[in-house]
Structure formats: C-alpha cells, structure tokens
Amino acid sequence: MLTAESRCRSFPSLAEMVYLNTAAEGIPPLEVREALDQYFRDKQLGMDGRERHFAALEETKALVADLYGLTPSEISICSCSSEAYNLAALALQLREGDEVVINDLDFPAGATPWLLPTCPAKVRLWKSRDGALRVEDLIPLLTSKTRLVTVSKVSFFNGFRLSLPAVVEAVRRHSPALLAVDVTQALGRIPLDLTGVDLIVSSTHKWILASHGGGLVGVPSERASDWHVPAGGWFNLDDAFGATRFDRAVSKPGAAGFAVGMPNFPAIYAIRTALVYLKTVGVTAINQSAQPLVEECLTEIAKLPIELLTPRDISLVAGIIAFRHPAAETIAQRLRSQRIHVMSHAGRLRVAIHGYNTRNDITSLLRELATSLKSLG
Which of 205, 243, 266, 285 has an alpha carbon within 20 to 30 A of 354's alpha carbon? Predict the structure, then answer.
C-alpha cells in the first residue's frame, strides 16, 4: 500500500516496531495529528470557529456516506459504537414476546443491550461452527416475532467475514426483523456492500486510523421511521429551542436521532482527515496489499501447535487471525520483547494485518512465534 518513504513519513512509529494489533487500536497517520492541531486553532476563535466545526462535520458525514453507500443525510456521528447500540435499543422499544438474534462472534457492544434485565425481549443465540456463522443455522431462529438481527461484518474475535447478501435474504424471507451490522473491523480494511442493511455502526479508532470518540451511524432513509430514538438532548430534536420546547420534545427520525448533543469536534476533525487519507490510498488497494499477507500468515500459523480459531478458508477471513494457546500471555510478552505487537486476552492471541503492514512484518512474527512455541516445548 505504501512506499518505504511514504510509510516512514506518515507512520514514523512503525519504524520501531512490528504492529499487528490494529483490530484493537489503529496507528493514525501524522496527518491526523495535524487535523487535531487544526481543530485547536479553530477552537481558539471561539464562536467564530463554530462554522468551521460544523463544516468539518458535514464533510465527515459525506465521507462516511460514501463508504456506507448512503447519502450524508443518512449519516450521524455519536460518541462510540456502544452508545449507538444503546440508542438503537431505545428506538426499538421492545416488548414482551419480541425476539432478538445475536451471535457468539460479536463484540459486546452489539450484543449486550439485549441481554440486560431491563430488556423484555427474548434473545436467541446464533452459534458459530468451526469459527464461522452459517446462514442455515440462522434461519431456524427467525420467526414472525423477530424484531432485530445484529451481526458484525467482520468478527473482532477471529476475523470471520460474514456474507451479508445471504444474511439479508434470510432475514427478509423468514422474518420482519431489522438487520443491524457492525462494520468496525471492516471499515477501511475491505470494500463494503451494505445493501439491505437497516442500521450500520462503526467505531473510529481501529482500521480507519482516526481517534477515539466517534460512532459512525448509518440509517437508510426508507428505514428512518423504524429508528426513532426517544432520547433527550438538543442536537437530535426537532425545534429544540422553539416556543413549545417546555411542552414536548420530539426527536428526529433515522440517523439524525443518534446524535443527541454537541458533536465531538476533535474526533470529527480526526475522522475527516483519516477518511480522506484512506480515500486517497483506496480501500481496494489496501485490501489487495494486505490480504496476501493474511493468507500467508494464516497458512503458516495453522501449521503451528496452536488451536486455530479463525476459519482456514481465506475467503471467509478479513484482516484478523486468532488462535489459542495455554501460554498465550507468555508468548505475547516474548513477542513484545522483540517489538512485535499482537493482542492477548484470556488465552487467545489475535493478529491484525492492515495496509501499512509489510511482508517483513509477517516474516518477523512467524519467526518469533515459532521460536517462542519451540521454547515452550
């Protein structure tokens, strides 16, 4: 994706380490730091800076819309993906007898709002097999009572890449449910086709290489009335300062209702610049550069004495490779001593490969991983 010169210029910290943990934290290009500096300069103008702040918001919504396949009016930006899902739970106003389908490869943000004791709906669990979610296992869970199916395009847990067209078809054919899709582990890493999705959510501090503090929400206009968030605030309300403001509060339908207060402008400046950077490079080019490295890494890791959690079929994988080992934490520490960064949690090791990674990164990882496993017997 990058020349040695452009990589060094935009990502100088990568000269000092092999960074394979983008699924947790992306490394922003230096252009993002400049964007945050620009926010501060604009903030120094006081109220005169507001015009620039809101211009940045509109530009960012347009960039997100382009990636989501929507229009800017169908995009909103809240504080994080967890906030987006909690607001979605409010919008659904579930009742006794309603059903929600979650799955065992999802991040907690998309699954836990429906598991709280305050949620009256019945939760059905779509279980993975061999690291993959199979549509034939989803269909029996869908009924006339299903109000929501929530999934991730790419699993944070093991990198499984879901076939959305097949899921959309199943949901439409077998239930009246809405389909919510978390694209946090896909956005900026692989090209997306989100046709038929009713709610799109992403965080901003991973593969799009921006900052914390953003939740990118997309709601197609034809589904706006299905996502009417009953939350107080002002930015999300119709006529928040009008003559009837102390008589009633009416939230805006669709994506606009997910932004309940003052936008997080520092994050928005960072997101705008990161998305411009990604657009300049091209997500297709990123995928073409990174996916062969994923395939090489997956092939070689599968030969090691580990429990592979990621599907072996590379067509089902995007960016992330995960495996278990009893000494996972020790392995991660040994890799870290060699300036190789991966994630370790509860016996699971996770490798994440982005466009700024190189074949040398993968070679170094595989060499040190094999050495560590050999030393452990």
Answer: 266
d(CA 120, CA 109): 18
Query: DSSP string spanning 252-288?
Result: PSGGGGG--SS--HHHHHHHHHHHHHHHHH-HHHHHH
pTM above 0.85, yes or no: yes
Residues 6+ apart with CB under 8 A from 40: none
Give the separation between CA 70 and CA 255, rounded to whole angstroms: 11
Provide the residue ranges of all domains of the chain, joining segments of one domain with +: 4-20+282-375, 32-279
Cα distances from 260 to residues 24, 57, 140, 264, in angstroms, run 26, 14, 37, 11
C-alpha–C-alpha distance, residues 180 and 176, integer Å: 13
* Cα–Cα dist 209/204, whole Å: 7
The amino acid at residue 133 is: L
What gap in Å lies between CA 173 and CA 190, rounded to an integer? 27
* pLDDT for 272 beyond 90: yes
Residues 47-71 have pLDDT tens digits of 999 999 999 999 999 999 999 999 9
Q: Residue 339: pLDDT band by 50, 70, 90 thresholds?
A: very high
The conformation of residue 72, written as its DSSP 8-state character, comes to G
CATH number for the region 32-279 comes to 3.40.640.10
* Structural tokens at position 52: 């620039």
| CA 333 – CA 298 distance, rounded (Å) | 21
